[in-house]
Amino acid sequence: MPPLLFYLFALITLGFGLNVVIARNPVTSALSLAVSFVGLAALFLSLDAYFIGTLQVLVYAGAVMVLFLFIIMLMDIKSEVLGGKANIAAIAAGVLVAAILALQVATISNQLPHSQDTTETASLNLSDAAKSWEARGKQNLPTISRDLKEGTLPDAKLMGETLFSKYAFHLQLVGLLLLVGTVGVVALSKRDKEVSPS
Amino acid sequence: MAAFFANIDLTFLIVSLVKIVGFTFAAVLPLVTVCVYLERRFSAVIQDRVGPNRVGVPLTLLGFKKDVQILGIGGLFQAAADGVKFILKEDFTPKMVNTFYFWLAPCLTVVPALLTCAVLPFGSELNFSFLGLEEPVKAVIADLNVGPLYTFAIASLGVYGIVLAGWASNSKYPFLGGVRSSAQMISYELSLGLSIIPVFMVFGEMNLPKITQFQDAHGWLILPLWGDGLSLGRWVLWIPMLISFLLFTIAMFAETNRLPFDLAECETELVGGYHTEYSSMKFALFFMGEYAAMIIGSGLAVTLFLGGWSIPFAPLLGLDFQAGATPLWLGLLHIGTFFAKVLGFILFFILIRWSLPRFRFDQLMKFGWLFMFEAALANVLLTAVLMIWFPVK
Question: Which residues of A fall within a CB distance of 8 Å from B393?
């Protein structure tokens, strides 16, 4: 991807991200966040991470933000639109948190393997990857090695393989947590009706 | 700057541009008008009426004696007349609306619907060696490894258009329509995505061109009648595939807001639903968005289950696809086959619309959450269990 496009999408992501905080109208905030997600997805695509980029749009922009928008529209937003003065303490705290996060990201990303490589110097040889993939005894997944031999990165398949073999237990744990959350929500929202029968 | 321009692959750029303009604006958008005409004529046939059969090329305006009917079929210009009518009507914006979002909403309905066609393989390959192109041109705008996911991701953005239209109109009926429609689309998106997981399990692949090539050689998913399709395994897996096809089609009807599920705009309860306050071309954009979504949905169903551009019994007829060695006429024939299948599927959409009554809203939600969702999940499990004994290589 040309650097020009990177700067364009980075600008979209950051600009609309800023608009989420600045905008007075909550609907504008919610939609700005959705546009910011789309810009982020484009940045993922520029790293050849098509699967993550698509999921970013599918899950966050397409489902989560729609639910947010839904709730905002069902509320009466007139009081929020009028707004008040800027809260200095909140802004200072926000800047501080952002600075700490940036520091953390910078520290960690410097210690990752290949963190000194640029896209030109990084070595990515997919046909070698196919050989080492088969050497690991994974012949029962022929589509992955076929893709690697063709020179395309099977990101969705590799991610599924890792999730369901290496992290199978963690995945089930997260699933259980989500189930508990769902049951909790149903239990909480049903409680009122039992107290006051018609 | 010169180095920057030297890096651009001009052939790739031009070919992509031609594909985008050719497929999106010269094929899918005109198909919308064809759909409108088919909808009106086919509904007339079903209801034993005549339907629009008069509008031809309006030569009488220029002083000729008679209008010309193309191919002798009356009414082919009806859709064009509708379009002219939409453009000439007053574009009225009510006073109390939120103007920015009121204008944004129709665009947000059409643009995602048209963006989704980027991954649909509308043909196999086109051999342009006489123009000096060495590699055959793939008849798909973007050959992505996550094709169907991309379609769902972009299609899920279409909800914003409807929600915003309902909210920005600042009026009761559009708001109710918008809320209904978004609830419906979010619910059925789940079963839509889950219903085709078994398909990807069978193919082991999410690349739509590769899926179509497999079906061309080994029989369509729903009609495995040639090649490896005649094995026992494929016919055992045919049962979950048929369930998957039915679930996908039903969810597609709900996603595109078509009639058994068009609760968002049901006239008897909500006047016009989310587009009550819209007029002129803005209303037409909602209309176009709905039909474009229907065309893309049909295209996806045809690609996944009915072989896409593949000609029936192609290996037996010697018309099967050979990568890199397909003559131009066969490539064009594949494109023709794809559009013929899509038109057939659209006729099925229309037939259902004019034969079934509308659901009630609570029935719709109950059906989506208590039947479709569970059935799709159970189907994933069924396919997984069957594939232990009958894997597809």
Answer: 142
